[in-house]
Amino acid sequence: MHEFGVTENIVNIVLAKAGEAQASKVIQINIVVGEMTGFVPDCIQFYFDSLSKDTIAQGAVLHFEVVPTHLRCRDCSTIFHPQDTLWSCPKCQGQSAEVSKGRELYIESMEVE
Ligand SMILES: [Zn+2]
Q: How far apart are CA 103 and CA 83, in angstroms?
């Protein structure tokens, strides 16, 4: 369950930011998560609920925006979405691609009061 570590980071960042903003309660946190990370939003919410207990972030709702995986062909620079585990370029059939999107995980914004 690698979600635990990232959720700890999220809670730390949220509490630091909320402290800076002198907030009394965190309402919602908007998180961008890449499809390739394999993170399960429900799992992050579950850990968040236990890690944020007795803090001002307790009860906050996590809103996830999932970014689909995008690959860029190293031969012709075409951006494409991989079909399952097949990473060949739909344009030139090249087998060499790099990930251009889908590995990100960050807090985009949050609502506090
Ligand atoms: Zn290509």
A: 17
Q: CA angle at residue 21 from 19 to 26, to 5 degrees? A: 70
Residue 76 in any domain: the answer is no
As a whole number, the mean pLDDT across the chain is 95
Strand order, beta sheet including 70-73: 79-80, 70-73, 97-101
Ligand 1 centroid to Cα of residue 79, in Å, is 8
pTM, two decimals, is 0.86
- Name the helix (H) or strand (E) containing 20: helix 3-20
Q: Residue 57: inside a domain, yes or no?
A: yes
State the distance from the centre of ligand 1 to the C-alpha of 83, rounded, in angstroms.
15
